[in-house]
Specification:
CATH architecture of one domain: 3-Layer(aba) Sandwich
Strand content: 25-35%
CATH superfamily of one domain: P-loop containing nucleotide triphosphate hydrolases
Number of helices: 10
Bound molecules: adenosine-5'-triphosphate, magnesium ion
CATH topology of one domain: Rossmann fold
Oligomer: single chain
Length: 252
């Protein structure tokens, strides 16, 4: 039984197919990079894996996590996996955080920390904020998201995404809302965190240079199809598809 296996997945919105027969697999602790132009279906695939597609979407094929079939899994079962086994970091950290709730309380919500567990929960939150290398984490607990910079917010979101020790983390363009310098820091943070916690990762980005830093293998998508899927070094050494060549030259 593999760690994560996607086979012949098709997804349509209101009868229009946007993902056409996609297959890939991921070993435990490995990172798959997904590249492709805007609208090619990257987030749709990520949402399908996390079981958060809108009700207008229909999915066929198979998405297996440790042998468990996720495609078509009822929400009641899915919510026992989401956040815990499979977690996600979204593109825009501001949208992922509740603007009117302090950072501390947003962690409590995820950790399910009742009043009696608050002291150990605070220690745990500080440990997590340290892990994503936020300076003086104890001073952040009583802050609101608007009081943090974009890079700090994304670090908080990453800490939240890993707080239940998921085994698979999906990062959907986690750096695209950030400026270039912070972008590199966040990538390094994710790499360090992955080495420490050992989760597998699906990392989505327009930018092949970014993917080359994190991914063991890369899947290039175009209009809902996979045009190329190979080990990272091989993809750069011997790109087969014209579109991949264009992405590589754009990344240089
Ligand atoms: N809720 C929805 N209802 C109908 N169509 C949708 C919905 N969400 C996405 N789509 C369509 O599905 C296709 C894939 O969109 P998706 O958001 O997955 O692309 P993407 O590769 O993540 O793009 P980007 O790089 O801009 O984030 C697009 O044609 C989009 O218009
Ligand atoms: Mg997207």
């Amino acid at each position: 039984m593999g760690f994560f296996e996607v086979e012949n997945v098709c997804i349509s919105y209101a009868g229009t197919e946007v993902i056409h027969n996609i297959s890939f697999s991921l070993g435990k602790g490995e990172t798959l990079g997904i590249a492709g132009e805007s609208g090619c279906g990257k987030s749709t695939l990520a949402k399908a894996i996390l079981g958060i597609l809108p009700s207008s979407a229909k999915i066929s094929g198979s998405i297996k996590y440790c042998g468990i079939e996720l495609a078509g899994m009822p929400e009641k079962s899915f919510c026992t996996l989401r956040g815990k086994e499979i977690s996600m970091v979204f593109q825009d950290p501001s949208a992922a955080l509740n603007p009117v709730r302090k950072i501390r309380n947003q962690f409590y919500d995820i950790l399910g920390a009742g009043i009696s567990r608050r002291k150990p929960a605070d220690d745990e939150i500080i440990r997590l904020l340290n892990l994503v290398r936020l300076p003086f984490p104890e001073t952040l607990l009583d802050k609101y998201p608007s009081q943090l910079s974009g890079g700090m917010k994304q670090r908080v979101v990453i800490a939240m995404a890993v707080c239940k020790s998921p085994r698979l983390l999906i990062a959907d363009e986690p750096t695209s809302a950030l400026d270039a310098e912070v972008r590199l820091q966040i990538i390094d943070e994710l790499i360090a965190l992955k080495e420490r916690l050992g989760f597998g990762m699906i990392y989505i980005s327009h930018n092949l240079a970014e993917l080359s830093k994190v991914a063991d293998s890369i899947m290039v998508m175009k209009s809902g199809n996979v045009v190329e899927y190979s080990k990272t070094a091989e993809l750069f050494a011997l790109p087969r598809h014209q579109y991949t060549k264009e992405l590589i030259s754009a990344a240089e």
